[in-house]
Amino acid sequence: MRFNPAFLLVPLAAACSTPDGEYPSLAIRDAERVSGSFDPAPPTPYIPPPTPAAVLGRLDQLAADAASAHRAFLAEAPAARSTIGAASGAEFGSDGWARASVALAGLESARSKAMIALADLDRLMVDAAVTGGELDRIVAVRNTVTAQVDEQNATIEGFARSLR
Predict the structure, then answer these.
(1) Closest by Cα among 108, 101, 100, 102 to 72
(2) Are 102 and 80 in contact (CB under 8 A)?
(3) Which residues in the chain show pLDDT less than 70?
(4) What value does the mean pLDDT of the chain take?
(5) pLDDT above 90 as % of the chain
(6) Cα dihedral sign for 96, 99, 102, 108?
(7) Per-residue model confidence (pLDDT) at position 84
(8) Secondary structure element (H or E) that encloses residue 68, with its range
(9) How far is it, in rounded angstroms, from Cα 7 to Cα 4?
(10) Cα gap 66→142, rounded to integer Å
(11) Containing H/E element for 92?
(12) Whole-angstrom distance, CA of residue 50 vs CA of residue 135
């Protein structure tokens, strides 16, 4: 005995019809009509949580460290300028060239202290960004330290060019 699927269609057709044998209308009913608009709801603005006190303390300490390193760099720069200026045109490996190289290395060492503070500020900024924290104060301090390091870089590059 084989199964014939046509036997299933007869009861389905009968189930869809009304008692008088008419089929229901396929027109859209009132409940099926679309109403409203396609405008999305306005997003709620994100307000980051306040920066923890420990981070603010670390931020203040890094700003102070960078400012101290910048002052030390600026205090060393005139002596280095004098030493490097005296060695201008000196032969590679001469005593004047060696003194100028040591003075330049001293400036680079002073700059490295500010760069350490800058690296720590970068880490604080990344940590705050990853956790959705407030960035404004960190970015402001970082911009100040970046400007100081950029000034130091320009000074060192100028001295290095005159030493060559």
Answers:
(1) 108
(2) no
(3) 1, 3, 5-19, 90
(4) 85
(5) 40
(6) negative
(7) 82
(8) helix 53-86
(9) 6
(10) 10
(11) none
(12) 10
**94 contact partners, CB below 8 Å, separation of at least 6:** 87
pLDDT at residue 77, as a whole number? 92
Q: How far apart are CA 158 and CA 81, in angstroms?
A: 10
Q: Which two tokens mark 5?
A: 């699927």
For residue 58, count other CB atoms closer than 10 A to its CB: 16
Residue located via tokens 């002052």 = 71
Parse the chain into domains and list their residue ranges: 53-163
Give the single-character DSSP code of 32.
G
Distance CA 104, CA 157 (A): 10
Please give the model's pTM, rounded to 2 decimal places. Answer: 0.68
- Overall residue count recorded for the chain in this entry: 164
Tokens matching residue 125:
């900024």
Q: Which residue's structure tokens are 């300028």? A: 81
Identify the pLDDT of residue 147. 96
Q: Is 67 exposed, middle or buried (0-12, 13-18, 19+ CB in 10 A)?
A: middle
Q: How far apart are CA 27 and CA 48, in angstroms?
A: 51
